[in-house]
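Researcher: Please translate sequence to structure tokens.
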Amino acid sequence: MQMKSVFFFIFFVTAACQAQDTTILTSDSVQLVVKVAGQGAPCIFVHGGPGGGFISFEKMGGKNLELCLTMVYYDQRGSGSSKNATDYSLNRMVQDIEELRLQLKLDKVYLLSHSFGGIIAYNYAKKYPEHVYGLILANSTLHFLNTASTKEQVEYGYHLLRKDTVIRETDSLLQIMTAVRKEMSKQRIGYKFLTDDIQTIIKLDSLDEQYPRTNDFGMAIVVPLLDTSKKVIYPEYSKDYTAETANLRIPVLTITGTNDHAIGIHHYELFKFPQQEVVKIDGGHLLYFEQNEAFVKAICKFIKKKTWKQK
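Model: Translation complete:
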């Protein structure tokens, strides 16, 4: 780092220890809610959804990462407490992260994604690898609603409903999955794609309900995929990014749950990153809460190793 960059980084880390919510204004005038807290190398958390938010991750164990990282939490446009927008393209989402990095005067960052956030984080790392120390994919997908994972969800749903799985070649997997989820919700077991413990979902929902929320981004992405009468405006989110991961030469930590039926227990096997470490943790989709100690240990170990090598 040049002396000026070192000064900005030291100032940023010192200020980050005094956590507070703030906002940034993007170049297309969308206000994003941001929170910075912790110590160590900066790490931008890219939440899932689409249309989720960072609060539940932070409050349900994510903040323990602040012992080894300066965490930069933000709600994506049209998500959580951030403002809605007219542009939800993947390029714009990537640009939001870049503008966040620039406004915080950071040279390089780690990116930590959860679930759907993997698509956004990966595409940022692909476009701006020179500004990324490493990529951490926690229970993340790189092919949203792909056939294999959707089929796994349908089969798992039928299993929980104690019904035989019947899938014809002419059937729409997405429509079947929607019907299965609806039936699971009626029986109050819809949460089992994420976790086996209903109390985890109750805690997650209670946290999210304490803050103003929007899900405009999520609606813009998901509704056209489930309702064939709607036009798909953002097809890039359904693209398969797994094969091209072989071309991204930065350190990658992939954390996967042995019982994560939201993403698929085998989805991570499609990742081809040349510098990848894989950590398997017994549990479902919300490892950051239910297996917090193992989750934090894996990330902090990765950070320590990679940061030491980069010095």
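Researcher: Any highlights?
Model: The mean pLDDT is 91.
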